[in-house]
Amino acid sequence: MTDWAKRYAEAHLSNTPFDNVQGELADASIADAYAIQAAFADRLPGTRVGYKAALTAQPAQQSMDITEPVSGVLFDWGVREAAAPVTAPRPILLETELGYRLNSDITAPVQPDSVLGLMASCQPMIEIASPNLAGKPSGVDLIAANAASYAFIEGAAHDVYSLDLDSISVTFTRNGSVLHHDSAASVLEGQSNALSWLINHLLARAQPLQRGMLLMTGAMGPPHPATSGSYRADFGPLGVIEFSVTGSG
């Protein structure tokens, strides 16, 4: 899988599309895809700052011929500030999510009823995703390409125990027109379940989970192609993230 990781790293750095793994290796497995992702991530510059879940909705999984969510690595070069216009040299998608900061290292599997005790904070997030694949992706292709991980905007941090997380909803607008309205409870049947799945999935793959890392549990609502305009994501008690897009791809 080293050759694929090298090809993907070169494509990422040059902002050219990734080749589809299953376009050349039709029998490539999910395990193969994660092996490529791991080697690809090792070749990227910067520091790992966390992980993201993707394909948390069944229709999204079905569209990519996969039966479970997937994960990707977040890097420090992906941090974006809401005050600065979002631009990208490749096509990008915008998603609304919740993020969590770990209050300690995690080395053992967790349960939904206690996982929030391991979180230092919860914050609203805008994921700026970029599948960047040359052809229509399968689940294997998406995993290999680091689950479309590219950039993100992080909102203000809140104490997880001060909130009923599953009651939080988001209204996402562009130039005042509603793109979607969705609930945090829609992600893997609740945020505690989503966090537990992501943590246990990462531990099974021997990924380090260290204090201060960011975990993004998956999209609340559908992804939207980023087009120029003014965006507003209202997360209710978690606050608002406002930003603009001046062009992409």
From the helix content, strand content and strand pairing, which structural class follows? alpha+beta
CATH superfamily: Fumarylacetoacetase-like, C-terminal domain
CATH architecture: Alpha-Beta Complex
Shape: globular
Order of helices and strands: HHHEHEEEEEHEEEHEEEE
- Tell how many strands the DSSP assignment holds: 13
- Based on CA atoms alone, the radius of gyration comes out at 17 Å
Low-confidence runs of at least 5 consecutive residues: none
The percent range for helix content is 10-25%
Give the overall pLDDT as a whole number: 95
* Domains (count): 1
CATH class: Alpha Beta
Q: How can the largest sheet be summarized?
A: 8 strands, mixed
The CATH topology comes to Fumarylacetoacetate hydrolase, domain 2
Give the N-terminus to C-terminus distance in angstroms.
28 Å
| Helical segment count | 6
Beta-strand residue percentage: 25-35%
